[in-house]
Amino acid sequence: MSEAPKYKRVLLKLSGEALMGDKGFGIDPDVVRTVADEVAEVHAMGTELGVVIGGGNIFRGIRAEELEMDRVSADHMGMLATVINSLALQDALEKRGLETRVLSAIEMHQIAEPLIRRRALRHIEKGRVVIFAAGTGNPYFSTDTAAALRAMEIHAEILMKGTKVGGIYTADPEIDPAAERIDRINYLKVIEQRLGVMDATAITTCMDNNLPILIFNMRKPGNMIRAICGEEIGSLISA
Within a domain: residue 178? Predict the structure, then answer.
């Protein structure tokens, strides 16, 4: 493993489902501790980090139809779920001596700072890990899209998405054992083939701004550090 990080500033997107581990719902403390350990090690290497966490381990707004709910209300519930996850990660990181700030796209002054881009950049420049909560603050947009937006706003060199699988596959690897991993692919093919690794809005946003996306398995210990050091793991989406 290389000792020097390849990237100076990274936006890390963590899926909510990955945080629940094998529990099926909620937050697995062991997973959060493992993620915090790796984020702390990456931070110690000198890489500046912004983090966006999904809320699918608690609630997903796209379940609105299934629950006979208004989609806007359901999406707001999903945004609040991301805040819960963000606070859990913040607590774990601060227990490891890292300075962190949670910035929320929905104002809730008692528990998070409002999302102000210049403030986020200032925190990052001061060596703090910035956790972006509540998605974009708007319904109908996923946390993948929020991650793409935040990556651009903080001038990240790459968007890294940590999931429970090892990258992009030709089929769902949990269903089809013959599914093959795709190591490299361009933005348009991801959209055309409807690979579903991120939503189309996030992919096109990254494509329009030439921001590479790395999809990797965050459940495998050390993978986050390997990705930061530039090792060829997971699947890279680029031009």
Answer: yes
